[in-house]
Amino acid sequence: MNDKINTFPVGIQLLGRVLNASGEAIDKKGPLTGIERVPLYRAAPGVAEGDKASLNQVLETGIKVIDLLAPIPRGGIAGLFGNAGVGKLVVAEELMHNIITRHNGYVVCLDMGEGTYKAVESMDAIREAELEDKVVLLFEELTESPEVRQRMIQGGLTIAEHFRQQGHEVLLVVDRDKMAQGSLANTRALRRMLREGGVTAILQGSEDDYWQFRQGDTLDDLDCQIVLTRKMTTRDLWPAVDRLLSSSRLLDSGAVDSEHVQVAREVLEVLRRYAELEMKEQQELSDADKELARRAVKIQYFFTQPFFVAEAYTEIPGEYVGVEETVKGFKELLEGRYEDLPDKAFYFVGGVDEAIAKAGKVEKEEKA
C-alpha cells in the first residue's frame, strides 16, 4: 500500500489514458498492467521557486502572435487567459498539437469536474483534435481537498519529468480555476509547485483572472501572459490573442535576439498608435496617420492564422510559422514593403510569401 502512495505510474503506456490522483485508470479501458512506477515527485528540500533568469530558451510554438509578442520559455509557466467564446481551448489544443508534431512532444493535462463524464468530455475534445495518442489526462472530481489537488500536481509532474528524461518535450496543461478553486493562496501554491517542477506549463484561467492578477501584482509569477479578448473576436481576428495585453519577460531578458525584440516593440507601438487613431474622425487624420493606419491593419491581419486543430471547421489547412519567418514577415511589413498589396491578402495566412501569393486572388475578388 505504501508503495502505491509514494509512487506513481509512468511510461508511454499511459498515453491516451485517463487516470485519477491515485494513478488508477478511470477511462473504462481496463486496468493498467505492466506499468513502471517511480517515486512521486517532491521538490528537493530547500528548493525555492527557481531562478527565472535561467529560463532563457524560447519554446517555438509556430503561432505567430505568441512567438513574436509573448514567447514561451522552455521550462517556464505561461498564463493562457480568456473567457468563454474567445477560442481559449482551440489555442491550447493548437499549442499541444504543435509541441507534439514539431517537437517530439507529449502532453499531460490536469483537469477536475463534476462527475466522471466530464473526464470523457475532456478526452473527447483531445480525441477530436487527433492528439489522444500523445496525451495523458489526470482527472478528479471537484474537491476542496488540498491533498487531492497536490497529489494531482505531483502525479502530473512525475509523468512529465519521466517523459522529459526520455528526451521528449513535455507540456503540462493545467486549469487554474479548477485546480486552485478560485483561491489566490491555492494559485500561488500551484504556481510554486509548477515552478519547482521545471516543466513547461500552460496555466489556463479566465480574463477576470488576468485582471485580478494584474491588480494584485502577481503576474510576475508567470513568465508570459497570453490574453484572449472579446474585442478581437468581434473583428474576426483569430486567434483572438490581444496584442497589447499579451507579453513575455523573455523580450526583456536577453533570451531572444535584438532584431526580434525591436520588431516586437515596433509592432506594439504601431498598434498602440492605431488604437488612438481609431478614436478620431477620418478628417482629423494626417497623411502620416493614414499610412500608419493602413500598415496597422495589415499587421493585425497578419497575426491571424489557420490552425491545424480547426481544419475541420475552417476547411483551411493549418499553418506552422517558425520564429525566424515570423520576425522577418513583420519586419518587412513595418518597412512598408507591401503597401501595394490588399490588406486581406494577409488575413488567415502563414508566412508573408503566402500573403504575396494570395494577393492576386484577393484583388480579383475585390474588383468583382
CATH topology of the largest domain: Rossmann fold
**Share of residues in helices:** 40-55%
The named CATH superfamily of the largest domain: P-loop containing nucleotide triphosphate hydrolases
Into which percentage range does the β-strand content fall?
A: 5-15%
Radius of gyration: 22 Å
Secondary-structure-based class equals alpha/beta
Trace the largest sheet across and list its strands: 2-8-7-9-10-6-11-12
Estimate the global geometry from the Cα principal axes: elongated
The biggest beta sheet is recorded as: 8 strands, mixed
Q: Any descriptors?
A:
two-stranded antiparallel ribbon; 44% helix; alpha/beta; single chain; Bovine Mitochondrial F1-ATPase, ATP Synthase Beta Chain, Chain D, domain3; eight-stranded mixed sheet; 12 strands; 368 residues; 2 domains; Rossmann fold
Description of the structure:
- β7, α4 (117-128) and β8 (135-141) form a beta-alpha-beta unit.
- The protein has helices at 2-6, 64-69, 88-102, 117-128, 146-165, 176-180, 184-197, 207-215, 230-233, 250-253, 258-277, 287-302, 311-314, 323-334, 352-367, and strands at residues 7-10, 18-19, 36-39, 58-59, 72-73, 77-81, 105-113, 135-141, 169-175, 200-205, 224-227, 247-248.
- By secondary structure, it is of the alpha/beta class.
- Helices cover 44% and strands 15% of the residues.
- The longest helix is centred in the middle third of the chain and has 20 residues, at 146-165.
- It is elongated, with a radius of gyration of 22 Å.
